[in-house]
Amino acid sequence: MSKTVFMRGLQNFIQDIRACQNKEQEQKRVDKELAKIREKFGDDKHQLDGYDRRKYIWKLLYIYMLGYDIDFGHRQACDLIPKPKYKDKQVGYMACSILLHEGDEFLRLAINGIRSDLISRNEAFECLALSFIGSVGGGEMAETLVPDILKLLCNGATRPLVKKRAALCLLKMIRKTPADQQVVNPDTFVPTLNDLLEEHDPGLLLSVVTLLAGILARNGPGGYEPCQSRLIRLLERLIGVNTLKPPDIGPEYLFYGIPSPWLQPLAASEYLFYGIPSPWLQAKCLRALQYFAAPEVPADRASLNAMLQVIIDGKNANSDVSKPGINPNKANAIYAIMFEAISLALHLDMDAKLLESSVVALGTFLTIKEANIKYLALESFARLALLPDILVAIRHHQPTVLASMRDPDISIRKKAMDLLFTMCDANNAPDLVGELLAYLVTADFTMREELVLKIAILAEKFAPTVQWYVDTAMHLLERAGDFVNEDIWHRVVQLVTNNESMQQYAARNMVALLRRGGSHESVVCTAAYLLGEYGRLIKEEVLPMDQFRLLNSLFPAASQNAKGLLMTAFIKIYLLAPQDQNLKKEIVSLFERFQKFMDAELQQRAAEYLTLADQPQAAVEKFILPMPKWPERESTLLRQLQKREGTEDDVSSSAVLGTAASGQVPDVQTQTLQPSASQSPPPPAAAASIDLLGDEALLGPSTSDPFAVLQSSASAGMTSNSQVAPAKPPPSNPVDLLSDLFSDTVLSTAPAPVPASVPAPAPVAVSNPFVAAFPSAGPAQVAGSYPTQMTGSYPPQMTGSYPTQMTGSYPSQMTGSYPTQMTGSYPPQMTAGMTPPTYPTAAPSAGPFAVPPPAPIMAPPIPLMAPASVMNPFASSLPISSASAPAPIPLAASAAFSPFGASASGQVSAGPSAGPTGGAPTPYAGPTGGVPSAFLPSYPAPIPAYTLPPAMPPPPVIAAPPTAGGFNDPFGDQAFGAPPVSLPPPVATGDVNAWFNSLLNKERGIFYEDQYLQVGVQARYTEGRGDFTLFLGNKSAEHPLSQVSVVVNSAASVTAAITAPVPVQILPKQQLQVPIQLTCLAPVTDVPSLHLAYVIGNQSLQQQLQIPVANHKFLVPDTTVAKELFFEQWKLYGNPPNKAQEMVSRETPLSTAPIISVVQQAGLGVEHGYLDPSPYNEAGAAYFVFGTPGSKQRALVMCRVEGNPQNMAQFRVTVSSPLPQLSASTKDMIVSKLKSISPS
Amino acid sequence: MALSSAHAIYFFNLRGDILIERRYRDDVTRDVAENFRTQILNSKDSSAIQTPVRTLGSCTFMHLRHADVYILCISKNNPNVMLAFSFMTSLVSLFKSYFGGDLNEANIQNNFVLIYELLDEAMDFGLPQITDPTILKSLIFQKGSSIDFFEKKKEKADPNATLQVTGAVSWRKEGIKYKKNEVFLDLVEQVNLLMSSNGTILTSDVQGRIMMKCLLSDMPELRVGLNDKVEDATFHQCVNLSTYEAQKVITFVPPDGEFELMKYRCHDGVSLPFKVLPVINEMGRTRLEVNVQIKAAFSSKIYGINMTILVPVPDNTAKANLLVTNGKAKYDATKKALVWKISKFMGESDHSLRAEVTLVATTKEKKPWVRPPISMQFQVPMLSASSVRVAYLKILERKMGSEYHVDKWVRKVVKSGEYIIRT
């Protein structure tokens, strides 16, 4: 031991780690240490001595405890266990217990060593091994080592020191083995236990009682009954000798065959804890006794009773907690015993006197400030409260419990709440619920939901009147708001619906609540339901308009669900006063808004209600009917509470509820949903016979929106279908209230009528598929936001069935002969004359969707037509419908003749990238399901398949005809059948040379123009390169320019090249660009030329043009040329021909600014006064860059314009450069400009 | 305020203590910074600190580490992250230039007042303002405590500080005088390489910088001519971009003192200075053989210096027997690698490292060793990895003309960036 303390290396390491400033340093230090340890452990040649090995293991342990991962050294740690020295063993056990866990393979290495320690008869080793097993041992170890441990425990020679460890270790082993295996056999083990319970060592006793309690908790008392009396004896020894005086327990106690040594008190002074003998052992004993039933031996019973009485009364001077200034440790010890005693008393169901004194004791605990005690007291109270006899006694403490609801500790508040809930009954319920409601406002948020639930349950369970319940529930909704579970307001709605007397009261109350500003989600839902349903009962006092306003103010902030309910309420309110135009306007505008809402549910409601709003009379009679009574069901609140709390007191409460609720609503208990429909006010027979389809027969023609009607009735039919269809059982289980609310109101008539309409089974059968098929299309038609689904959901075969439904439903309404229409005569209906009227009527309501439905048929033409003009697809389909057969041919032909010259087989795939026709093939790919190249052959196929030549044609035909102006247009080939157009010959609209000259002085402008074509130019020059862009614009509005060609010819000094393909044709009013790149190779002496040609109609043009370039375009001005360089070069090229000079005289003088501008126009950079300080002179410089890109050359061009100080109309212009032509041309440029410039 | 980059700036030391807190808006509290400490800095997941940008709840944390200091930007809206980071980097260089040394915890603690003053100027309401040290030095005269007072005579307060900030040549003051005019130009290139285990180059590029130090009087104009090989160049604000566009000449009036003239990047024609041929064999569970050969691919007249080669080895390495033909090598447990240091590596030569590594058998089943890549650090003076050259450096002073004498110094060096060879 001592050496462990003074391990220098370990200490240094720990010091280093502690000195680390940050985690990084620590990591580094640890890595270094780990590397060192790895090196030591990895070296097999030099065995480490024991000291080093221990040291490194300690270090590893320390590192491990710092949180680093250790992945080696386990073997070395295990190796230490079998070592003979205690030091080694100690470190080995320590390391293994920390580094290894239960299932570790390395434990197997150690197990033999552990076993040999267990049987070594060396106490120290035994203790080490036992505590190691206790802390690590798993199932495998349990199997191997339990016999040895048992031996240690049973062996009389073992000292208590070892035995107590063995007992605890055994407990651990028992806990580790699976529940179905028995580690110890009660028959053999009970005698041992009994012997052990007679020991004197309190430490050992504590362990043994713990072991016993552990076994009992696991296996139950079966087989261990003999231990009970031993435990009681033990308690007697603990309590009796010290506290019980003979008068208290009677003399007989001393004679129960107790062997004399037992009478020796246990309480040697070292086991007195503040004067209490081994309090923890007492508590443990009391706990262990709770696993047994009440003792059968009367003497035991009496003794136990007496002892409990003593404990609970706390009469003993030594254990009076109420004494001021008592040491908290002592108080705790007393409480521990006391609480165990109370629970034992409860468990054994001792006489009432004992329990009453328990209540008294607990009552005093409640007043104690100590939170733990209070909590335990409340908990015990809650258990006691379940005993009806005691409940009365507990009620006395109700104020104290209520005060605990304000305790700062939330766990205490929760316990108090539970207790109050248990304590509540019909007598004190109104008070208590009132208290709880008042408390709710201040309650902690985490508690509120449960509190709300409990209030709701108590209110329901013990409601003296329904009105009281409704009041309470409304208060609850108002105050708790967000914490109100849905079930609560569902319950309110149920009760109100089922109690006619309450309905008006509830509606009135709700209005008052809304006026106070209640706006929680559940308030909104309840309000929507109550006002919608029973607003009619109060419409005299609160006008429908006001009701609507009240609800509508909540609408924007409501959730989707609540919005749905509100909309239902709105339509109902509207129907109260359909004559009120203001109300109608507001409600209808709201529904219209929501017809385009994203959520399908709300959208559908809006659409349906809108239609109903149009027919208030019919709606009131057939659709919007009062809610039927609800079937009585198990309170969902209770169900929920049970879920939350397990099985606590469910039997009693639900029984109570059952009686209470059935008393209020006696006659609805056995209703199911199905009969409720039949029980609802029977609708007139006439209405019933109209049935699903009949609805739209009535409504359809008169509304402007047939789709909406159709859809609403269809979807109503669909939902009702599930009830009508015999195959499907009626939804007998209580469905979610929310969905009930809606479907029931709307369908309240529907289920009944349908059976009535059965006389003709066939129509129903037919209508079912229809109805079933329709909804798939239905939502899409109405829903504003599903265009993609639309196109996706119409495969080619659908196109056949879709118009059938359309046409089938409409015309058939008139005649009623639905089935025949369906099978027989749809080819005629499908004629183009029939379809257009159908679609346009659908269009206004369906908005963008009216067009997508025909997409598979009609869509292909659209891209084709796009370039031509905007054309009505329907109209266009008419004239061509006769020409279905030739249709594919022009398409193929024109593709074949396309300028891209692809062969007939490949042209289509080439097409898409080509131009305006590119869009065409892809739409075809959709409906036919093939790749673009397959679309041509697939054309003939659909036609026979449909056998509807007249109906089918639109797609292929439209492909060609829209280009009626000429087939050539989309495919851009005039060779294909373009009729020659007679046009005047092109004539240039200006002087070509003038354009050329003006372009010399500017970078953009007109290059050439005639009545058909305008060619503009824009140029940019950079360092010997010119980027020249021609803009070819077709001025004609009708005729394309074709065979356009632009060819450039380079000149000797300037090369020109077209850098992008020249378009072959220019469409009317189109402008195209042709980039040309110019490269200056030498000073410009000649200019490159450009040949322009095109054909328009029967005319053509051939024009030769000069590209406007000159030397100055390639000059890069340099205003900041170094003076040294300038003058050096000036001198170097100071003689002709490098230097060019000329005198200029003007008629008018010039100031400085125009001179500078002249020089700048000539392409030179100039800064006044920089190179030539004279104010009359200007000197400028520029670089002339020329040559091919790889070998560019630069020449400095310098110029000087000297003015005559006496007469600023006379100048001398000097230009010098390394290149004579350059000097000359630049000089000429400046001179001519100086001459021509007008005075400033 | 999409432009905003920071609601608050914090400085932390490595332990996570707040050194400096500067809030620019009121909606950030100190607790938020605590979150950085608990969630990112000292997070159990050690990789948390490696993600420079992290959004926790409504806050975005952007941090940067410099020496032993974390700089943290907190933003509560959708911040411009690049802006935040470039702001933080410029803060670092700003502080460095004020402190005259490095930015570290000690320096921050010694200069609280100065730093607050600088932070006030550098950012306003979360929007970056001036971060240029030369300008700020004319506004904030206080000096960092570690600055050398003998280095420069104290400059007078510039009465026209505002004018200068808003003026045309905001980066240079009028009337600077030096006895001796000197210009230093350093072409510093960083080579980045990622090579696969079979020797193919996955990525390689050169990031070059031209650093200048100008000690010039008056208002000189400098011209630097480069050959045409430069791609992706970014310039200091003093450079006249239009002249560069037209003539490919970098023309500028330089700021006084040190600055970075330009940055560029080259992807093509990168000449890699070193070739590495690694061979690593795992011989069973407890042994590893490493053989790394390095060849210098530059002329024998120049040489690489300060080379460090890191050859990673498994975590459970016990020891390594190393043999090298040049320099020194050893196993460094904190880096989990063999560290091979060479002080001088002559051009056209090659050297190799051979190592036998002994491993300790681990007790836990582990994933096979992932073989992290070999990385290298080096410097090769007077080499250029891209083909960029400085063709000329001209200085023009209008007033003095040819009287203006300047000593020009041009150097170049290649450094390693991320030079990584997979094994």
UniProtKB/TrEMBL annotation, chain A:
Record keywords: Membrane, Protein transport, Transport
Top-level division of the source organism's lineage: Eukaryota
Domain Clathrin adaptor alpha/beta/gamma-adaptin appendage Ig-like subdomain: 997-1108
Record's keyword annotation contains Zinc-finger: no
Pfam families assigned: Adaptin_N, Alpha_adaptin_C, Alpha_adaptinC2
Gene Ontology biological process: intracellular protein transport; vesicle-mediated transport
Localization annotation: Endomembrane system
Entry's Gene Ontology cellular component terms: clathrin adaptor complex; endomembrane system
Renumbered residue ranges of the record's region Disordered: 660-687, 904-926
Signal peptide: none
PANTHER family hit by this protein: ADAPTIN, ALPHA/GAMMA/EPSILON (PTHR22780)
Protein name per the record: Clathrin adaptor alpha/beta/gamma-adaptin appendage Ig-like subdomain domain-containing protein
Species: Chlamydomonas eustigma
Lineage, highest ranks first: Eukaryota, Viridiplantae, Chlorophyta, core chlorophytes, Chlorophyceae
UniProtKB/TrEMBL annotation, chain B:
The organism of origin for this protein: Chlamydomonas eustigma
Family: Belongs to the adaptor complexes medium subunit family.
Protein name (database record): MHD domain-containing protein
Ranges in a coiled coil: none
Keyword Cytoplasm applies: no
Stretches assigned to the MHD domain: 180-422
Flavoprotein as UniProt keyword: no
Cellular compartments annotated: Cell membrane; Membrane, Coated pit
Lineage: Eukaryota, Viridiplantae, Chlorophyta, core chlorophytes, Chlorophyceae
Gene Ontology CC: one annotated term: clathrin adaptor complex
